[in-house]
Amino acid sequence: MGLATTPACFMSTILPRFNYDASIMMTASHLPYTRNGLKFFTKRGGLTSVDVEKICNRAAQKYVARKMGLGSRGTPPVVMRVDLMSAYSQHLRDIIKQRVAHPTHYDTPLKGFKVIVNAGNGCGGFFTWDVLEKLGADTTGSLHLEPDGMFPNQMPNPEDATAMSLTRDAVLAHGADLGVVFDTDVDRSGVVDDTGAAINGDRLIALMSAIVLDEHPGTMVVTDARASDGLTRFIASRGGHHCLYRVGYRNVIDKGVQLNNDGVETHLMMETTGHGALKENYFLDDGAYMVVKIVIEMVRMKLAGLEGGVGSLIMDLEEPAESVLLRMNILGEPKHAKQRGTMAVEAFKNYIQEDKLSGWVLDDCGDCSVGEGCLVDTNDHPIDVDAYMYRIIQRRGGGMRLAGKEASLLRKGFVGTRENPF
User: Fold this and answer.
1) In whole angstroms, what is the distance from residue 133 CA to residue 135 CA?
2) Alpha-carbon distances, residue 52 vs 41, 55, 58, 188 (angstroms)
3) Could you tell me which residues come within 8 angstroms of residue 128 by beta carbon, excluding any fewer than 6 positions away?
4) Which GO terms describe its cellular component (predicted)?
5) pLDDT (tens digit, 9 = 90+) per residue, 103-159?
6) CB neighbours of 199 closer than 8 A, spacing ≥ 6?
7) pLDDT band, residue 369 (cuts 50/70/90)
8) Could you tell me which residues are beta bridge partners of residue 115?
């Protein structure tokens, strides 16, 4: 396929012109260029860490067998170069045209709109010229569109303050209606509204919740447990339900799949890092598709004569007083990191249960609309998860602050979460 986004790699198993049995993405994502990895997809979606571990073990066994002269290399495969990204871009353009259904210029529904794209020198530049511009948008002032794996300008990450700040400056300088920030392989995104306000983290989940709840009233929204109480109230105020689940975007998405299988209508699953998946889009975390949804809403609001940009949809979201993300390294051999992290989390849980921190208690999720599904799987066959965590409620002066901790599969240690985390 050549240069492609991770979501497009999955869509190669779906799009009619391709319809492959499987695809593999080689990417370092936003990590240093020395850390290339592989992401595996079939028509059912991305493989889990357990699946990948099995593949790695089988590959190692075959490698040893060949070294010992016990295996055969077989016939070399026939390799063909295909233009996947053109087909994927057309797929996104068609969705925008069909759902906007512009009354006067159907094929150029973005005519008259200015959109800034900050691709962070990843592979998201295609969205500028193959999606937005072909639909009539003015993308003057877009940033860092050419791929460069050394990332000379900024960290390509919608959580990154520099990325959002640069995009904000460009939006304001060019009077744009929207700014878009992609991570390197475009499975995550964030946006900046016409006032220059950054929309990522809780704010992005709130925006997507507002859009999805308008389309699917009463639906469940699944997020990781780092989401704020304000977000829960925002979703509830629009008639939705909020399921808090473990940190890790695969955990959040898989929880949404499980809930749908159990008969709980769940259309949106998002992690606070910007990974977001929709039931309507094969439960795929696709940053470009998320932006497509936001762009469609932006045009619809303009056609309806509504004042303000997409940021006006979340004006009543209660912001946390303070939010800090802490990552602490686990020392020792990497192969033991996950086990040691889990032990540390359990030790901290016991510390709280023994009342050794005044005013701190474990969060049992209270009156949860999916039973005990928030942080504890009660299914006969629970899904595989990468993180083991608990939410802690800390009460001070009548207020409530939350904190959480997880053992990270990335072997980077713990993630302290929420307002005034420990």
Assistant:
1) 5
2) 10, 5, 10, 21
3) 117, 119, 139, 142, 145
4) chloroplast stroma
5) 999 999 999 999 999 999 999 999 999 999 999 999 999 999 999 988 899 888 898
6) 190, 191, 192, 193, 207, 310, 311, 314
7) very low
8) 178
DSSP secondary structure string, 297-350? HHHHHHHTT-SS-GGGGGTTPPPPS----EEEPPPS-GGGHHHHHHHHHHHHHH
Helix, coil or strand: residue 41 = strand
Tell me which DSSP letter residue 397 carries. T
User: Nearest to residue 185, comparing CAs of 76, 274, 310, 82?
Assistant: 274
> Please, where are the H alpha helices in 37-145?
49-67, 84-100, 126
For 267, residues 6+ apart whose C-beta sits below 8 A from its C-beta are 212, 215, 216, 219, 220, 221, 278, 279, 280
Q: Half-sphere exposure of residue 305, counting CA atoms within 13 Å on the CB side?
A: 0
Which of 369, 360, 417, 355 has the alpha carbon at shortest distance from 389? Answer: 417
* C-alpha–C-alpha distance, residues 257 and 267, integer Å: 9
For residue 202, give the 3-state DSSP assignment: helix
Compute how many other C-beta atoms are within 10 angstroms of the C-beta atom of residue 407: 24
